[in-house]
Amino acid sequence: MLLAGYAYAHGAARWLHVRWHTVVHALCSRPAVGALPFALRADAALPAGGHPVAVAPSAARATIGLPFFALSTNASVLQHWLSRTDHPAGRDPYFLYAASNLGSLLALAAYPNDRRTAALGRAQTRLWRIGYTEFVVLIVACAVVVWRRRTRHSARRP
Protein backbone atom coordinates (compact mmCIF):
# COMPACT_ATOMS: atom_id res chain seq x y z
CA MET A 1 0.00 0.00 0.00
CA LEU A 2 2.95 2.29 0.62
CA LEU A 3 4.18 1.75 -2.92
CA ALA A 4 0.66 2.29 -4.30
CA GLY A 5 0.38 5.51 -2.30
CA TYR A 6 3.68 6.80 -3.65
CA ALA A 7 2.67 5.84 -7.21
CA TYR A 8 -0.62 7.71 -6.82
CA ALA A 9 1.12 10.80 -5.40
CA HIS A 10 3.64 10.81 -8.25
CA GLY A 11 1.08 10.20 -10.99
CA ALA A 12 -1.38 12.77 -9.72
CA ALA A 13 1.36 15.39 -9.38
CA ARG A 14 2.57 14.61 -12.87
CA TRP A 15 -0.74 14.49 -14.77
CA LEU A 16 -3.20 16.63 -12.81
CA HIS A 17 -3.30 20.39 -12.38
CA VAL A 18 -2.80 21.16 -8.69
CA ARG A 19 -6.40 22.31 -8.24
CA TRP A 20 -7.79 19.07 -9.67
CA HIS A 21 -5.29 17.18 -7.57
CA THR A 22 -6.78 18.73 -4.42
CA VAL A 23 -10.24 17.48 -5.41
CA VAL A 24 -9.03 13.97 -6.24
CA HIS A 25 -7.00 13.73 -3.05
CA ALA A 26 -9.85 14.90 -0.83
CA LEU A 27 -12.10 12.31 -2.47
CA CYS A 28 -9.46 9.59 -1.98
CA SER A 29 -8.92 10.43 1.69
CA ARG A 30 -12.58 10.43 2.73
CA PRO A 31 -13.57 6.74 2.14
CA ALA A 32 -10.88 5.52 4.52
CA VAL A 33 -12.86 6.99 7.44
CA GLY A 34 -15.43 4.24 6.83
CA ALA A 35 -12.70 1.59 7.16
CA LEU A 36 -12.06 2.66 10.75
CA PRO A 37 -11.94 1.32 13.37
CA PHE A 38 -9.92 -1.49 11.92
CA ALA A 39 -10.14 -4.87 13.56
CA LEU A 40 -10.16 -8.51 12.62
CA ARG A 41 -13.42 -10.29 13.23
CA ALA A 42 -13.28 -12.59 16.22
CA ASP A 43 -14.90 -15.37 14.19
CA ALA A 44 -12.38 -15.10 11.35
CA ALA A 45 -10.67 -18.42 10.88
CA LEU A 46 -7.56 -19.45 9.05
CA PRO A 47 -8.14 -21.29 5.78
CA ALA A 48 -7.50 -25.03 5.96
CA GLY A 49 -3.76 -25.54 6.28
CA GLY A 50 -3.24 -21.79 6.43
CA HIS A 51 -0.44 -20.29 8.43
CA PRO A 52 -1.01 -16.98 10.22
CA VAL A 53 2.01 -15.43 8.51
CA ALA A 54 0.59 -16.26 5.08
CA VAL A 55 -2.77 -14.70 5.95
CA ALA A 56 -1.34 -11.52 7.53
CA PRO A 57 -0.87 -9.49 4.30
CA SER A 58 -4.46 -9.99 3.14
CA ALA A 59 -5.77 -9.30 6.65
CA ALA A 60 -3.73 -6.08 6.78
CA ARG A 61 -5.02 -4.99 3.35
CA ALA A 62 -8.60 -5.67 4.40
CA THR A 63 -8.33 -3.77 7.68
CA ILE A 64 -5.78 -0.96 7.45
CA GLY A 65 -5.04 -0.89 3.72
CA LEU A 66 -7.19 2.06 2.70
CA PRO A 67 -6.30 4.36 5.63
CA PHE A 68 -2.62 3.50 5.22
CA PHE A 69 -2.78 4.23 1.48
CA ALA A 70 -4.30 7.65 2.13
CA LEU A 71 -1.84 8.51 4.90
CA SER A 72 1.20 7.37 2.91
CA THR A 73 0.54 9.93 0.19
CA ASN A 74 0.38 13.06 2.28
CA ALA A 75 3.99 14.14 2.75
CA SER A 76 4.64 14.32 -0.97
CA VAL A 77 1.13 15.54 -1.88
CA LEU A 78 1.19 18.46 0.58
CA GLN A 79 4.72 19.40 -0.48
CA HIS A 80 3.59 19.44 -4.09
CA TRP A 81 0.54 21.56 -3.32
CA LEU A 82 2.59 24.10 -1.39
CA SER A 83 5.26 24.25 -4.09
CA ARG A 84 2.61 25.15 -6.67
CA THR A 85 1.22 28.12 -4.75
CA ASP A 86 2.54 31.65 -4.52
CA HIS A 87 3.27 31.20 -0.79
CA PRO A 88 6.91 32.10 0.07
CA ALA A 89 7.47 28.69 1.72
CA GLY A 90 6.48 27.08 -1.57
CA ARG A 91 9.95 27.71 -2.97
CA ASP A 92 11.37 25.08 -0.62
CA PRO A 93 8.54 22.91 0.78
CA TYR A 94 10.79 20.12 2.04
CA PHE A 95 10.53 21.30 5.64
CA LEU A 96 7.16 19.50 5.57
CA TYR A 97 8.95 16.21 4.89
CA ALA A 98 11.28 16.78 7.83
CA ALA A 99 8.33 17.71 10.09
CA SER A 100 6.44 14.59 8.98
CA ASN A 101 9.40 12.34 9.71
CA LEU A 102 9.99 13.97 13.09
CA GLY A 103 6.33 13.57 14.04
CA SER A 104 6.36 9.92 12.99
CA LEU A 105 9.54 9.24 14.93
CA LEU A 106 8.20 10.91 18.08
CA ALA A 107 4.91 9.00 17.86
CA LEU A 108 6.73 5.72 17.28
CA ALA A 109 9.03 6.34 20.24
CA ALA A 110 6.24 7.50 22.55
CA TYR A 111 3.61 4.86 21.77
CA PRO A 112 5.13 1.80 23.47
CA ASN A 113 6.18 3.93 26.44
CA ASP A 114 2.74 5.43 26.99
CA ARG A 115 1.21 3.42 29.85
CA ARG A 116 -2.24 4.60 28.84
CA THR A 117 -2.10 2.72 25.53
CA ALA A 118 -2.60 -0.63 27.25
CA ALA A 119 -5.61 0.74 29.15
CA LEU A 120 -7.28 2.33 26.15
CA GLY A 121 -8.59 -0.86 24.57
CA ARG A 122 -11.75 -0.07 22.62
CA ALA A 123 -11.35 3.65 23.23
CA GLN A 124 -8.18 3.51 21.16
CA THR A 125 -10.09 2.51 18.03
CA ARG A 126 -12.52 5.37 18.62
CA LEU A 127 -9.58 7.74 18.96
CA TRP A 128 -8.21 6.47 15.63
CA ARG A 129 -11.51 7.27 13.92
CA ILE A 130 -11.65 10.74 15.49
CA GLY A 131 -8.02 11.46 14.63
CA TYR A 132 -8.38 10.27 11.06
CA THR A 133 -11.58 12.28 10.60
CA GLU A 134 -9.72 15.37 11.84
CA PHE A 135 -6.95 14.54 9.37
CA VAL A 136 -9.43 14.46 6.46
CA VAL A 137 -10.89 17.80 7.59
CA LEU A 138 -7.38 19.30 7.61
CA ILE A 139 -6.64 17.90 4.13
CA VAL A 140 -9.82 19.54 2.86
CA ALA A 141 -8.79 22.80 4.58
CA CYS A 142 -5.40 22.63 2.84
CA ALA A 143 -7.18 22.02 -0.47
CA VAL A 144 -9.32 25.11 0.11
CA VAL A 145 -6.20 27.19 0.78
CA VAL A 146 -4.61 25.90 -2.44
CA TRP A 147 -7.77 26.80 -4.40
CA ARG A 148 -7.77 30.33 -2.94
CA ARG A 149 -4.11 31.05 -3.60
CA ARG A 150 -2.67 31.75 -7.00
CA THR A 151 -1.28 28.50 -8.36
CA ARG A 152 1.19 27.60 -11.05
CA HIS A 153 0.29 24.95 -13.60
CA SER A 154 2.03 21.76 -12.58
CA ALA A 155 0.69 18.90 -14.66
CA ARG A 156 2.86 17.66 -17.47
CA ARG A 157 1.17 16.28 -20.50
CA PRO A 158 2.41 12.85 -21.66
What does this structure look like?
The chain is mainly α. The chain has one domain. Helix 1 runs parallel beside helix 4 and helix 2 runs antiparallel to helix 7.
Summarize the structure.
The protein is mostly helical and about 160 residues long. The protein is about 65% helix and about 0% strand.
Radius of gyration: 18 Å
What is the overall number of helices? 7
Shape: globular
Specify the biggest β-sheet. none
Helix content: 55-70%
Low-confidence stretches: none
SSE order and pairing:
Blueprint: H1 2-15, H2 18-29, H3 52-72, H4 74-83, H5 95-110, H6 116-120, H7 122-148
Helix pairs in contact: 1-3, 1-4, 2-7
Please describe the structure with a list of short key phrases separated by commas or semicolons.
158 residues; mainly alpha; 66% helix; 7 helices
